[in-house]
Design brief:
326 residues, alpha/beta, Enolase-like, domain 1, TIM Barrel, 2 domains, nine-stranded parallel β-sheet
């Protein structure tokens, strides 16, 4: 990978943002979201920001490993990146993004933004009503019993008969639990479901049996996974900071364009810096395929650093600086 103009000033910051209440990520109960911000300033004074934020339970690398790797790269000089045989996805994404200097737009006004609902049934219903009952939502599933998920799905669709729901089970169901869920809901209100079980083969079979649509998410994170067209696959959920390589993501966008799949550019609970990066990528790819944004995650943070786009330079100056060019 080429990094373009050599940066004159580089800084690496650490952040820690509290959640309003602890969130569970595949067994990791997190009170805070932690990550790194890489700031590159070139000789013309132009500044690029990139976020490095492995997500516990989903990323194969820890934050400590990512920090060690990126500081090692900075010590050796980013111009020597071509010598690196393998980078962690979170580090790869940050460096690829910074190198591309993709222009940001203030708002993705022409892209669909899909609100995220999660929590117990009562909480989710309150969230949905507060949003004034939109016709498309993403719903976290498989964090309670299948029976409770079925009840919630049916409650939401009874409130708004036009509602389409994109469910995300994060591979947490057994085949039997998924089968129960699909047999007990009005599947015409299910836009698609992301990864009902941990088995790609079982998910394909379940989708064909129940005539529902699938979206691939965690499956795309597997380095050896090779996408092939399946009639039941309707969408690809691309989480850039977990996939890493922009080149690999571009290949997925090309596949989606060829097979007329929907694409959701989705957050992994990054700070506002990361969310701006994902929005820019969505705008960059919007002419290639049907893109929507799954970035509705800032609402789960308490007020803290990097939760708003206002005064970013000042917010960065208040963070711990782990490394800087001398």
């Amino acid at each position: 990978m080429k990094t373009g103009r050599r940066s004159e000033v580089i800084k690496l910051f650490a952040y820690k943002i509290p959640f309003l209440k602890p969130l569970n990520f595949k067994g990791f109960n997190l009170k805070y979201r932690e990550g790194l911000i890489l700031q590159l300033q070139d000789k013309d004074g132009d500044i690029s920001l990139a976020e490095i934020a492995p997500l516990p339970g989903f990323s194969r690398e820890t934050l400590a490993q990512a920090k060690e790797q990126v500081i090692g790269l900075l010590e050796r000089g980013l111009e020597n990146l071509s010598e690196e045989s393998e980078l962690y996805p979170s580090v790869q994404f940050a460096l690829d993004y910074a190198a591309q200097k993709i222009p940001c737009a203030p708002q993705a006004v022409n892209l669909d933004k899909v609100p995220l609902l999660q929590g117990d049934n009562q909480t989710v219903i309150k969230q949905y009503l507060a949003l004034k009952c939109p016709d498309l939502v993403k719903l976290k599933a498989a964090r309670q019993s299948p029976e409770a998920d079925i009840l919630l799905f049916n409650q939401l669709t009874s409130i708004n008969p036009l509602l389409l729901i994109r469910c995300d089970a994060n591979q947490a169901w057994t085949v039997e639990q998924a089968d129960l869920f699909f047999s007990s809901i009005n599947s015409s209100r299910l836009d698609y479901i992301e990864e009902p079980t941990a088995s790609y083969i079982d998910n394909i079979q379940l989708a064909e049996q129940h005539q529902i649509a699938l979206a691939l998410d965690e499956t795309l994170l597997q380095p050896d996974f090779c996408y092939q067209y399946k009639r039941c696959i309707k969408a690809l959920v691309i989480k850039p900071s977990l996939i890493g390589s922009l080149q690999r993501m571009q290949a997925l966008i090309n596949n989606a364009h060829r097979d007329q799949l929907k694409v959701s550019i989705s957050s992994s609970f990054e700070s506002i810096v990361g969310l701006q990066q994902l929005t820019c990528l969505a705008l960059y790819w919007q002419n290639s395929t049907d893109i929507s944004l799954g970035l509705d995650t800032l609402k789960y943070f308490a007020a803290g650093p990097l939760t708003t786009a206002e005064n970013l330079p000042e917010a960065l100056s208040q963070l711990e600086c782990l490394w800087a060019t001398s």
